[in-house]
Amino acid sequence: MKRMLFLTSSACVLTLALASAGRADQVDYTKYGDYANYGSAEDGSSACSYANIDKKDYSGKTLKVISNAVPVIGEPTILHAKQFEDLTGAKVEVVNVPFGDLYQRIMIPFQTGQAAYDVMFYGSLWIGDFHNFLAPVPEEYLQTPGMKDVTQNYKDVATWGDQMVQYPVDGDRNYLKVRADVFNNPEMQKKYKDETGEDLAIPKTWDEYNQIAKFFSGWDWAGDGKKHYGSAEITKRDDLMFSAFIDRVAAYAKNPNVKGGFFFDLKTMTPQVNNPGWVKGLEMFIDAKKAFPPGGENFGLGDAIFSFGGGQSLMEYTWDDPFIQAQEKSSPIRNKVEAAPLPGAYEVWNRDTKKWDKFDTPNAPPYITWGWTSAVAKASKNKEMAFDYLCFFANKPNHALDLQIGRFGINPYRNADFEAKFWEDKLGWTPNVAETYVKTLSGMDKSTNRVFDLRVPGVNQFMSILANGVSQAMAGQKTPQQALDNVAKQWTDVVNKIGKDKVRDAYAKVVALEDQGR
Amino acid sequence: MDQPEFRFYKLSFLLPGLLGLLAVILFPLFFTVRVSLSGWSAVSPGLDFDGLANYRALVSDVRFWQSFERLAGMAVGTVLIQYILGFAMALLVWREIRYRRFFRVLFLVPMMTTPVIMSVIWRTILHESLGPANDFLGLFGLGPYPWLTDGSFAMASVMMVEVWQWTPFMFLLLLAGLISLPREPFLAAAIDGAGPVRTFFNVTFPLMAPVSIGAIIIRLIEASKIMDSVYVLTSGGPGTATETAGYYIYIRGLKDFEIGYAAALSVTYLVVMIVLLTVIAKLLVRTFVGRGT
After folding, report:
1. How many domains does chain A have?
2. Phi, psi torsion values for B135, nearest 5 degrees
């Protein structure tokens, strides 16, 4: 009996010990707001875990951080800064600025040689302008489990030449989102077949996309008594419209058989922006206007998010945000959506032969566009603390939390993020939704025909000129060819002003990423 | 004998004010002129000396001059409407009417709100999918109207928001002018049997000319800087339909980071505005007050 009692007591003690050990390993977010609602994750034992960062003592030191306004990237910056302060004793001063101000707030101190900020969060496409002012990521941080798990795609995004100078904290790309409940509805399939003679399926080409979008515009296909529309796209000038346009153009102008540049011909630095492939993309963009919701010609990213996420539009193709919005617990279309790769084209312009190449399967290059990134200033006097902060920011439990909160703007960029089970368990997505999501995202990462941002000095100016030209054509002020000819002329002027060799050197690094085909 | 000491004494009183003036007004102006002579951009940091290259480039910058034309139309149009509405509202609450104090405060509310916030609210109201403007007009069988996606409508929308926001300022100045008018001319007009319309055109309007000119010039100066409502409502679009000079300078300076070029645009803009507004002020004075004034 005594023996039995002893065994039972021992088992209880052991169970309690194991349970408390397990709890101790879980990160506690309750102190910082309602983040604990998203559950917790194991701390792990990496160099940047809570336990290991807790061993560091940065008392008396101040880390200066600049980030976007709250909530997108700004909110996690603040949250993890507070945690870092509590663990290390450091003081972390976070400056949140509106996005329109972010570039110049970072660039002016760089140019004037001031160490205004130790850590910067910004758009990854600015690497062409910033790389000279950034500290390379030290080897010990490259060897952390979190960094090793970053997909090659996002390591590429963070790298300039052969050095990683940006610390990956986000993975962005544009992909298609559709209303699966409509596409899978037999009634809708019959209606579409009867009226068009074709099967209703998730579009594989932009022709199909436009046709389906136009068919589903201006009537109540959702059965809620309201008019619904086919396509929500970013069309507002100066509001990332250039990304939406490039999504469409890539299918017609990023020929897998032609190496040496998508935006420019690397050899001559002649802009390709007015070649027939680009013009076709613009014509299709203009054609899609017929499927936009009212006001859709002035939609910014926020409008597109709410149009698709709120159930107004059938399809959308920007970043993760509309998908996450659609999957919010309060969303009327939760678990009624699917992710898919961007549509493509059967005919792709070949700038070498000056002919359209025909493909048996649609050419659909993923556009790895934008995305938040972070970096440490070369002029920083607190580099070790700065990298510790970034490493801590992106450690396993923090990353797991950040991925779940849509407004944080942090999206998958590690291999572990592409496990459907994470999205099912943590966010209650149905297996089909989670499966299409991770399959689409991971498929884009593996593509051998990708388009990257134009990561050259003066990228903002190039994109601003492009957006203006596209906007003029969309508004009917110029024909697509006239508008893009004008863009090409202005791009040439900018290249000549900056210096052809300087732009070519930078663009060669983009082309290397695209042409290596990994 | 004491004269030099006396002068120094006087100067020492003026010095803090002069230094303040120098720091607040003149330094930024001179600095902008200096920057405009440099090639400061994303790829060429610092104040090198690029001569008049930026000024030569802007002469052939069609987009800048078109944005100037658009701005001129927008500024003159909005200020005229503001003047007419502001005058009407001031006349309404000038005389003894019920709830006069309430109306005086109510008319000032738009001016007291933050322009960017109000532009965001107006953008929501005019949102063609989600905003109430089209829903409301639909009740009367009107619309829907492409408030922000058609060039003409977008221009009208931006002007409407400007008029809504800044008419109270015109109202305030004109009401102050009306309150300070002498009573005798009005008594004389009444004795002569002049009706309200004749009294307005022969007495009130001429007496209000100096105040009106001041109010119009102040508002023209402000209206020529239209930027925040354009930024929020249309981003200068569709196409370039609502792009004003101020917004274009913002794009070139802060988005494209062409700091030197944007400074040249700013200096040119300043000079053109000073010349134009001086001419307009002279013309207004000559027309409404008289040559000798």
Report:
1. 2
2. -60, -45
CATH of the domain at A211: 3.40.190.10
Whether A405 and A455 map to the same domain: the answer is no
User: Running DSSP on this structure, what letter comes out for residue A25?
Assistant: H
Measured CA distances, B84 to A515, B91, B163, B281 (Å): 64, 11, 11, 18
Best A107, A297, A298, A471 residue to mutate vs chain B (most B CBs within 10 Å): A298
Q: Is residue A455 part of a domain?
A: yes
Alpha-carbon gap, residue A437 to B51, rounded angstroms: 55
Domain boundary among A380, A410, A440: A410
Residue A460, domain extent = 176-368+449-516
Do A357 and A250 fall within a single domain? yes
pLDDT tens digit sequence for B243-274: 999 999 999 999 999 999 999 999 999 999 99
Q: For residues B293 and B289, give the distance between their C-alpha atoms in angstroms, rounded to a whole number.
A: 7
CB distance from A468 to chain B under 8 Å?
Answer: yes
To test the contact with chain B by mutation, choose from A461, A472, A477, A479 the residue with the greatest count of B C-beta atoms within 10 A, namely A461
Q: What per-residue string of b and e applies to B267-292 under the rule 16 or more CB within 10 Å gives b?
A: bbbeeebeeeeeeeeeebbeebeeee
What CA–CA distance (Å, rounded) separates A272 from A257? 16
CATH code for the domain of B229: 1.10.3720.10
Report in angstroms the alpha-carbon separations of A369 from A82, A104, A274, A277, A300. 30, 21, 21, 19, 16
Cα(A184)–Cα(A202) distance, rounded to whole angstroms? 10
pLDDT tens digit sequence for A33-67: 888 888 777 888 889 999 999 999 999 999 999 99
State whether A293 and A353 are in the same domain. yes
